[in-house]
Amino acid sequence: MAALEVLAQHRCHGGWQRVYRHESAVIGLPMRFSVYTPPQADGGPVPALFFLAGLECNEETFMIKAGAQRWAARYGVMLIAPDTSPRGAGVPGEDQDWDLGTGAAFYLDATQAPWAPRYRMESYIAQELYGMATAQLGAVPSRIGIFGHSMGGHGALVLALRHPGRFRSVSAFAPIAAPSRCPWGQKAFSNYLGTDSDAWATHDASALMASSRAPYPAGILVDQGLADRFLAQQLYPDAFEAACAQAGQPLQLRRHADYDHGYYFISTFMEDHIRFHAERLQGAATPEVLADGGA
Predict the structure, then answer these.
(1) pLDDT greater than 50 at residue 190
(2) Cα dihedral 256→259→262→265 (10° resolution)
(3) Quick check: 209 and 243 in contact, CB under 8 A?
(4) Which of 110, 118, 175, 182 is closest to 146 using CA atoms?
(5) What whole-number percentage of the chain has pLDDT above 70?
(6) Average pLDDT, the chain
(7) Shortest CA distance to 139 belongs to which of 283, 252, 38, 288?
C-alpha cells in the first residue's frame, strides 16, 4: 500500500486537520485527500465519513468551507475528503470545460477513450482510498458512511447503492439525483461512458434505487434548497423521491425555502448530517462534550 505524505496539518477543535498525498495505483498519478481526525480517536477507533465534493472543487473545499470539524469533534467522527478528479492526467480537453474533466470526474470509472486510463474515481474511492482509510487511518469497515454535495451528492448516493457493504449510511446535499436526465450528467456520461443508456443507468441514483428494495432501511437524508438555481434543470430530487417510494426506501427529503446551492446552505445543516451518520455508525447520537470546549 502506498505511503502517505503529510502535506499540511493543523490543530482544529481538539483534533487534527491534515492533507495527504500518495501515489495512486488506481489512477496512476499522485492524488491528494484531506482528513479530519477528531480528539476521540486518541482513545481508539472512531466512525468515518467520506465526503464527496461538487464540480470544480478539490480535496480541501469541504474542509475549509463547511464548518464540519466542529460537529465531527462533537460526535466523534473522522472526515475523509478526496479530490474530485485526477490532476494533470494529460487528457486532451480535460481543462477546457468546468463541468467535464479536471474537477468533474463524476465519481465513476470511465470506459471511453481518452478518459478510461486515468479517470477511475469510483475504484479510487471505493477500493484504494477506502483501503487506506481502514489500513492506515484506523477507520473500521463496519462504521463507514458517505455523503456529498451536488456532483458529490450524486457520487455518494451512487457509490452507496453500488457498494452497500462498504458504506453503512448515506446522505446528500442538493445531489444530481437523476444525471441521465440533466445536462451535466448527459455531458459527463456521454464522454465517460459512451452512448449506451444501460451503462448510464448503472451510475444514476434514481435508476439504481428504482431497481432496488430498501437498501438502506435506517433511512437516507437529503437536503435541498428551494432557491437553488440548478434545481429545476440539473438536480431532479423528485425523481429520487419517487424511486425511493417505489423501492420502499425510507427517505427524508427536506426542502428549504430561500437556501441556494452553496456552502452557506451546506454549513447550516451540517450538524444534522453528521448526527444522522453518527446515529447509524456508532449507535448513539449523544455527543461527547469536550472538557476544553473544543467542540
Answers:
(1) yes
(2) -60
(3) yes
(4) 175
(5) 96
(6) 95
(7) 38
Give the integer Cα–Cα distance in Å for 205 and 203: 6
Closest CA to 7 of 59, 78, 77: 59
DSSP string, 8-37: EEEEETTEEEEEEEEE-TTTSSEEEEEEEE
With pLDDT > 90 as the criterion, what percentage of the chain qualifies?
A: 94
Write out the E strands in 4-159: 5-12, 15-23, 30-37, 48-52, 78-82, 144-149
Q: Which residues are registered as beta bridge partners of 256? A: 225
Q: What is the mean predicted confidence (pLDDT) over 255-271?
A: 98
What is residue 240's predicted lDDT score, i.e. its pLDDT? 98
Residues annotated as catalytic (active site), given as ranges: 150, 228, 261
Query: Grid coordinates representing 202?
Result: 448503472
pLDDT of amino acid 293: 31
In the predicted model, what is the mean pLDDT of residues 67-72?
Answer: 98
* 23-62 CB burial, b ≥16 within 10 A, e <16: ebebbeeebbbbbbbbbbbeeeebbbbbbbbbbebbbbbb
Provide the whole-model pTM: 0.95
Question: Rounded to whole angstroms, how far apart are CA atoms 64 and 116?
Answer: 31
